[in-house]
């Protein structure tokens, strides 16, 4: 999709014409800078998740009688992330267009890195589960796809699903929306009204999510779905790539909506 500026239709037409070889030709290879961007972003969000203060929130009682405890600091992490990101650009410390220029490599690295992460979750669920809300179905495919643990954690306080679903996946939605605005501004000297509408709508949605994050911890994603491939890979790869694709497309294809 990066090859087609985020257009699903253009990507589909290209693949119909060129087939598997065309897919191989345009597949970006992960690079050192892509891994560095992912690592720095992930480490920053993990640090905010652990270090920022927040209200103690209890989740619903699990099927085995456990009640997970969280620290509700998502809105603070969201604010710190966006202010830090925009400030780095404003004071010319880091140019977010670097992220856009290496998007394909970043997504490629996320695809493979997230797959390895899911293998880690599968092994952890077998050898070091965080609670009694875990176990095998007896089928490797189901265990890997659905997950081994309901509430996997590293240590006592670092909740893996909060990180993958909220602090990495949903946060990246907002960060990339801002990135596309900055890239279009640097290309054209202005931001189109269509990009402003797209970015505003995305930020309103993500802001609402983090305002309500403690409520999200009571939903099916957290309280029922285990931490496996389909939810973790989806949040680490699908959300930042597909959900942000309208902004990616608008970078090079601005639309003038006007006042009518």
Automatic annotation (TrEMBL):
GO cellular component assignments: endoplasmic reticulum membrane
Protein name in the entry: 7-dehydrocholesterol reductase
Subcellular location, record wording: Endoplasmic reticulum membrane
Pfam families per UniProt: ERG4_ERG24
GO BP: any one term: cholesterol biosynthetic process
Any GO molecular function: 7-dehydrocholesterol reductase activity
PROSITE patterns hit by this protein: STEROL_REDUCT_1
Superkingdom, taxonomy of origin: Eukaryota
Membrane topology: Multi-pass membrane protein
EC numbers, comma separated: 1.3.1.21
Family classification: Belongs to the ERG4/ERG24 family.
Transmembrane segments: 33-52, 72-91, 103-123, 162-182, 194-212, 227-251
């Amino acid at each position: 999709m990066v090859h087609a500026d985020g257009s699903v239709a253009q990507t589909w037409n290209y693949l119909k014409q060129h087939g598997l070889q065309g897919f191989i030709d345009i597949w970006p290879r992960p690079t050192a800078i892509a891994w560095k961007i992912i690592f720095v972003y992930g480490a920053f969000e993990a640090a905010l998740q652990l270090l920022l203060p927040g209200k103690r929130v209890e989740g619903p009682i699990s099927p085995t009688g456990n009640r997970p405890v969280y620290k509700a600091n998502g809105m603070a992490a969201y604010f710190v992330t966006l202010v830090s990101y925009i400030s780095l650009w404003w004071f010319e410390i880091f140019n977010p267009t670097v992220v856009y220029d290496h998007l394909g490599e970043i997504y490629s690295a996320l695809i493979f890195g997230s797959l390895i992460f899911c293998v880690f979750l599968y092994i952890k669920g077998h050898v070091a589960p965080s609670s009694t809300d875990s176990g095998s179905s007896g089928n490797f495919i189901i265990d890997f796809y659905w997950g081994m643990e309901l509430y996997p954690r590293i240590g006592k306080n670092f909740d893996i699903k909060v990180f993958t679903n909220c602090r990495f996946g949903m946060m990246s939605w907002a960060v990339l929306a801002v990135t596309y605005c900055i890239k279009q501004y640097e290309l054209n000297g202005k931001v189109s009204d269509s990009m402003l509408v797209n970015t505003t709508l995305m930020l309103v949605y993500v802001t609402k999510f983090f305002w309500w994050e403690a409520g999200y911890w009571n939903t099916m994603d957290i309280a029922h779905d285990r931490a496996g491939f389909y939810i973790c890979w989806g949040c680490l790869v699908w959300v930042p790539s597909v959900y942000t694709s309208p902004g990616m497309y608008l970078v090079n294809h601005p639309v003038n909506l006007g006042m009518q």
